[in-house]
Amino acid sequence: MATEHRAGFLPADADAYRLRLTGAERDEVAALARRLAGTAPALVDDPGWLATARRLGNRLPAHLLDTVRAFRHDPGKGGVLLVSGLPLHEDALPETPGGAGSVERAATLPAATAVLIGLQLGEIVAYRQEKSGALVQNVVPVRGLEASQSNAGSVPLEFHIENAFHPYRPDFVGLNCLRQAVGQKAGTLVSSIRRALPVIEESDRRVLHQARFVTAPPPSFRSGGSTEAHPVLDGSPDDPNIRVDFNATSALDDEAKQALERLRVIMMDLSTAVELSPGELVFVDNRVVLHGRAPFTPRYDGRDRWLQRVFVHLDNRRTRVHRTDNGAVMG
Length: 331
Ligand SMILES: O=C(O)CCC(=O)C(=O)O
Ligand SMILES: [Fe+2]
Description:
The chain has helices at 23-37, 47-57, 62-73, 109-121, 193-196, 202-208, 254-269, and strands at residues 17-20, 80-84, 123-127, 137-139, 157-160, 172-179, 188-192, 213-215, 233-234, 241-242, 249-251, 272-274, 281-285, 289-293, 306-313, 329-330. It is an alpha+beta fold. Strand 9 (233-234) and strand 10 (241-242) form a beta hairpin. Fe (ii) ion is lined by residues 151, 160, 162, 291.
């Protein structure tokens, strides 16, 4: 990943926005997050609590706000923003949850921190059919689901954008690290179409821009059928968005199948590991970056890897018809 930089802009050659808070900045974030965590009813999914989060987030350290704003404007070649040095009391963390579909409803310090920052990037949203519509979701290994192509598994997770099948995919996916797998640092993998594009043959690019692919919903979604035919690359030929899930997207003809397979190899070859440590929060731009996960060995001893995930949308009006009372949950 790129070198650290203090200003709220990305040097042209840098791969990712990488921002390490100073001790003083961490204290400022901690004070806001604690104040938010103590705001009644101390529930993440409560509209009043979220309104407070939206307001308090404006007071985050200027350096952090500058960078979030710059990342929103242009996510850089890597399409990733990594914030480290966030407040986290590792000693006070409970055991890593182990159940399927686990979510964080309580306004804990890490949940409040992720929401404060996420709400500066855009609108935090969730899907009623996924993880019971909770805004903060636990990403933890689940016994019996080791082989599943979901965030409950521990086998390699194929590169994907989040909810590739869905018309209202998140614009950004945030992953906040509470606990890392003991002795196993690498977990989340990312791969940016902005990096990969020059390596993709012109003829494959043309095919990938055509509606010759369909995508099925992931295992975490409890309903929904496959999409209509869609392109994998969309928008500017020089800087396209990518829409693919290599576990769920299939090609409708042989030529498209080969182009898709070559894309898969390129995206894997150019991928990098985001080695998240506790107190680090990564946002990936879900329009230009695929993410996946390296395999790891869960121990189910309460000390397993534990991330908390939030989804961010940029345009709140676009999904209004799907959100009751202008709330945060679609579906
Ligand atoms: O476990 C990870 O690092 C990422 C899992 C994932 O794809 C997700 O939670 O959306
Ligand atoms: Fe994912």
